[in-house]
Every structure is written in C-alpha cells, then in structure tokens.
Amino acid sequence: KGDSKNELLLSLSNGDLFSTSGKIFDVEKKGDQKIVFTYKYDNGGEIQYTYELKKNAYDIDYTVNINGFGEKLDPRNVFLNLETSFRKTERLFSEQRRVSTICFKYIEEGFDYLSEMKSDEEETEDNVDWVCFKQSYFSTFLNHEKYFAKDGSEFEIVTYEEGHPKEWTHLKDYKAKLNLNFKNTNNGSVTLNWFFGPNDSDVLKAYNDDYEQILNYGWGIFRWINVYVIEPVFEFLIDRGLQVGIAILILTLILKFALMPIQWKMYVSGAKMRILRPEIDEINKKYPNKEDAMKKQMEMMALYRESGASPLSGCVPMLIQMPILLAVFRFFPSTFDLRQKAFLWAEDLSSYDSIWNFGVYVWPYGDHVSLFALLMAATTLIYSIMNSGNMQSQPQQPGMPNMKIMIYLMPVMMIFFFNNYASGLSYYYFISTLVSILIMILIKKFFVDEEKLKAKMAARKAKAAATGGKKKKSKFQERLEAMQKAQMEQMKKRKK
Description:
- By secondary structure, this protein is α+β, with helices and mostly antiparallel strands.
- Helices cover 42% and strands 26% of the residues.
- It is built from 13 helices and 16 strands.
- A hairpin with a 3-residue loop joins strand 11 and strand 12.
- The radius of gyration is 31 Å and the shape is elongated.
- The N and C termini lie far apart (84 Å).
C-alpha cells in the first residue's frame, strides 16, 4: 500500500483536473482471461478499463475507453500517470539499486534512459514507443499500440538521500506521465500492452521491439562483445543443460584458449625485454643526466630495432584483451541466468558468496568474507609476479607510480571491491587468471626457449652490426628519429 499509483488524469475544458485515483470501478464483464471495469462520471461520461491475460506469456493487453465526454475533454489532455517505489528483492541490494532506472524508446531517436546514479528527469523530446520501469532482474514495460504523444509526457527517477524512510527498503521512486494520444473522447479508445517479467535476453528479444536494450551490457565495443560473443556462447552452454557454474568455467576456457596466441605474444615480448635488461641498464648508466635523455632514448630505440624487441609489443596484446575483461564485468551481474543459481559454496551467483559472516559491517570491507574474491585476488597476485619481469625490464619514469608496489596493491584493492560484488563475476576472473597462469607455464616450458630466443636476438644484432645498421626503418621510426633530432638541435640552440 502506498508504493504505487496508476491513474488517468483528465484536464477538463472547465479547468478542472479529474483523477481516477481512489475511484471505485464496477466490474462490467468477467471471464477466465478477460475483465472489464467501468467508472461512470457525473456529467454522463464513462471510463472503461479492459484487461486481457494471455496464456504462457509475461504480458497482458490493457485497453482504455473514454465515452460521452465530447467537448468537455480535449483528447490531447488525457494522461496516464504511473508512480512506483520498487521494494528490495535481491540479496545484493546495492547492485539492484545501482542499475535501476526508467528506460524508454523514442519513435525517431530510439532507446534512451534516465541516470542510474542520481535523481534525473526528462520532458520527452519525441513521441514515445514504450516506457520501462527497470530493476536489476525484473522490469515493467508499457507499450502503446501507436505511440505516446510527446506533448506533456515526462519521466522522473528519484534516489533517496541518507536518512530517508525508504533508504533501506526501496530502490528508487519512478514517475511517468504519458500522453495517451487519444483521437476523440466521445467514443475513443487506445490499446496498451503491459509486460511484467524477467530481464532475460531471450524473453525480451521475443517482443521484437528493442526491449533487450535495457540490459546493462556496457556501451560501444563492450556491448558488442557481450551481445555477439559472450552472450551467444553462454546461452548455448546453458541450453545444453549445463549447471551455470560449469557453463562459466567452459566459457572461460573457450575465451582464454582463443586468446592464447595473444598471451604467447605477450610472453615472448617479456622474454625479449628480460634478455635486453643488462644492456638497458648499461645505457641508463651511460646517460644519467636529464639533458642526455634524447641520446639515451635514441640509443635504446636502436637497441630495440637491432634486436627485434619492442617495449610496446607486450602492451598491444594486453589492450586487445582489455575489452573482453571489461565486457564480462557488465555481463555477469546483468544476466538473468545467474540469479539465485547456487554453485559450490555460493548460494547465489548473482550476489556475493560468503564463508564467514561477521555479524557487523566493517568499512570498507563489508560484513562477510567472499572466498571467490580472495581466490581471484590471490591468482591475480601470482600472475602479476610471474609477469613482472616485463615491468622490471623497463626503467622507472619520473612521476610514475612504482610498478612493484602496484603489483601488490591491486590484488588488495580487488579484495575490498569484489567482496560485495556478484560471486559469478569473481568466479569468472578467478578461473580466467588461473588459466592464464597455466598457459604461461605451458608457453614457458614447451613453446618458448629463452636460450634459443637469446641466440636469435644476438644473431640479429650481429647482422645489423655487419651491415652497419642500414636495415630499412619503418616510416614511424623515421619520423620519430627526425623529431628527436629536431628536439636535440633545439636544446643545443637554447644552451648557446
């Protein structure tokens, strides 16, 4: 009681505002799938609601009829006012609240939504196809047979300040005022469609009206990866009858082995940099002064070119992998398949797992211990240490954070961040990093012989020395060296 309001607002020609809120409607017809309610207005007008259920469906048809108002009511002044305060339904309350908002689809401009992070409102700029009151795993859609007229239509989402009576019981306040786009009020009607159901991708896609756009899979390339790669593979595994936890495991293996050539490239790059480390240290000792920075950089570039190594070659493969890492960060907390699915000690993969509840909240950690978060942090630390050779091969830049400290700091930060996050995501990152460690061990043991690589690099340097280093340079190298020489000339002029 008091959590929602569903009313017609009629702005009459005499200046009165009539609301159906709290009015008693009579049951005019009633069947197994259909019911008709009627309200008779004092001036002879009549308002009629018809609800019709469907078998095995999440939606119902809702028809509004207005009769006998004539000139007393302008058709453009018939509004449907919806107000809802959704209650907490998920264990992970913070995530449920964080992604809750009002979404809508404009006829011309397409999908849009109000802010998820703060109170927000919008007066419609275009006619509206549908409006959605969205939560994390369930939503309500209201779809017009034609469109809601833009004149007077507006949306508002309201978050709660600290100390608000609803702070710990409700998500947010949703408000939508919609122009029903009546053509006449003497004998007019509009048909709407209500959807009350899960934010399940297959279910939403079945309506063929872009309902699935409400799924928070990220933006740009991250959403494309989720929609065209992660989701199809994951749904395929789930449809085979696999347990969700096993499906996540197999999905992780598929992605990691598909990216194995990239990890191999990263390892080879790191191995080359480790081999060059003594020579890099010698160059650093040779040019200790800041004014020799250009000479040091040019000599290092010559070393990299002659040996076939590049400090950037390990970064590019990492950049290729990053979109996938960030895409799954949005996919797993958003996919309906994880909701209330248990795996190992986790009661619900869409929420945090707990092996020990403190009984009291400890800021900023929480009131429990998430084992998946600990395992993820531990494997991340091990992987970072194993991969630290590449970082250590590069000179520390002034003003940049110490990478050795970052290696140990990041896993600690992850413990605090992921302790209260979806355990399915922590489980994925844990398995992903564990597989990366195993792949790195396999590459090191069976695929890359550092001694042979060292000999190959030495032979390449010897060949470059024999030809006087006249190997054709790339256009990028030529432009970079030209810029460096120009900067050196400018520095010399300044000294004069």
